[in-house]
Structure to design on (407 residues):
């Protein structure tokens, strides 16, 4: 009988011949050859179309030598980039433990974890500028056109947050990451989503003991407005002109000019209609969270990684992949809002500006002549009178558009 305890003490380990070459050939024959075993329908196990996954593999191969097939000191071929990216996608899509992929893909547990961490880091660095962007002028114009059809002119999306259970949260941190209604340590994601489930804003990393307002006060949601770099938004509601877009939010958010909330106790038919349509449209972000967790089960289960940086890379990579899938597939459908109106969500591929939030620029030590503009923009965001005026105008606008039995 072999004494495994003594072997571990001596630092030895058993070599396992996993036959990597056979695993590479089998994967290519299953999915990536001219006549694969599994058709495009079964390729949905990757949560995306084949050409999109191949684009990701090609980009990561150019980005890092880690995703290129190399030979070891004995001349044996290592794992192919398809195999490494497949291992990472299986963990993201199915939320499986790393050692579960050893039997099928012939990759050890430690190598699978390494594949995942490098994969999500590469996704964030290579595709984040395009798929985590803020709305550009063209994006804003398209969002405003669709919002007008839905009865909310000037609306840029719906705002909400979700929790991700952090199972391996350090014991010393559990107090600040645990909230009473959750009961377990969590990290929060704040997001803005549009009707087609594209996530336009993602802010991840706030401890789960916070509420929506705490997250809002830390997030860079309005940084581009304070910087003066936000796209121009001009719209008219009930004869009144507004120059700043807004988001649909739930009741906990403050009464700012940039938020439109429901009416908790509507007392007239007009107010009931606004509450009904606001609550229906605000479900866009809830649907986006549901689709995000359905596509990537790793977000639905508890996070088992130790470092917050790794969790952030995983979360942002899933959001980026989600947006890539939305852009790739939304040309095949259209959104219908009622029996008489429809809006085709087809969008042309184009180059986009950097969308991630940047620190405020142009404000250095010394006389700050531009600081008055920042204060003015901040006051316009927090304007409660404008909030109430906008809501009153939307009540009349939606009643004129959808009232009299048309709701």
């Amino acid at each position: 009988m072999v004494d495994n305890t003594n072997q571990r003490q001596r630092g030895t380990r058993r070599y396992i011949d996993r036959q990597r070459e056979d695993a590479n050939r089998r994967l290519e024959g299953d999915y990536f050859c001219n006549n694969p075993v599994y058709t495009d329908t079964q390729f949905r196990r990757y949560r995306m179309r084949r050409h999109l996954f191949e684009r990701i593999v090609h980009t990561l191969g150019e980005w890092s030598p880690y995703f290129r097939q190399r030979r070891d000191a004995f001349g044996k071929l290592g794992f192919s980039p398809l195999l490494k990216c497949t291992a990472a996608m299986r963990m993201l899509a199915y939320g499986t433990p790393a050692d579960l992929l050893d039997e099928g893909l012939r990759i050890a547990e430690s190598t699978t974890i390494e594949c995942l961490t490098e994969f999500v880091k590469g996704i964030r660095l290579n595709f984040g500028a395009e798929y985590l962007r803020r709305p550009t002028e063209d994006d804003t114009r398209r969002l405003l056109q669709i919002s007008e059809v839905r009865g909310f002119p000037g609306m840029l999306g719906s705002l909400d947050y979700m929790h991700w259970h952090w199972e391996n949260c350090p014991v010393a941190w559990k107090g600040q990451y645990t909230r009473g209604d959750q009961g377990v340590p969590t990290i929060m994601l704040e997001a803005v989503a549009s009707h087609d489930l594209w996530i336009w804003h993602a802010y991840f990393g706030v401890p789960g003991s916070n509420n929506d307002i705490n997250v809002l006060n830390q997030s860079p949601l309005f940084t581009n407005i304070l910087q003066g770099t936000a796209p121009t938004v001009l719209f008219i509601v009930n004869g009144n002109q507004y120059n700043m877009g807004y988001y649909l939010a739930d009741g906990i958010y403050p009464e700012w000019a940039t938020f439109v909330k429901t009416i908790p106790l509507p007392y007239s038919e007009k107010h009931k209609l606004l509450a009904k349509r606001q609550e229906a449209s605000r479900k866009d972000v809830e649907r986006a969270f549901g689709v995000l967790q359905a596509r990537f089960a790793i977000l639905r289960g508890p996070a088992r990684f130790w470092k917050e940086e790794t969790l952030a890379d995983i979360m942002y990579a899933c959001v980026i992949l989600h947006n890539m899938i939305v852009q790739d597939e939304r040309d095949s459908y259209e959104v219908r809002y009622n029996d008489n109106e429809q809006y085709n969500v087809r969008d042309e591929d184009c180059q986009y500006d950097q969308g991630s939030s940047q620190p405020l620029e142009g404000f250095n030590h010394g006389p700050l002549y531009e600081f008055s503009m920042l204060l003015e923009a901040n006051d316009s965001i927090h304007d409660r009178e404008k909030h109430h005026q906008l809501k009153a105008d939307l009540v009349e606008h939606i009643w004129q558009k959808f009232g009299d039995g048309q709701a």
User: Anything to note?
Assistant: The chain has two domains: 17-130, 137-332+365-402. The two ends are 78 Å apart (CA to CA). The beta strands are 155-165, 186-193, 199-207, 235-237, 240-242, 246-248, 259-260, 335-336, 342-343.
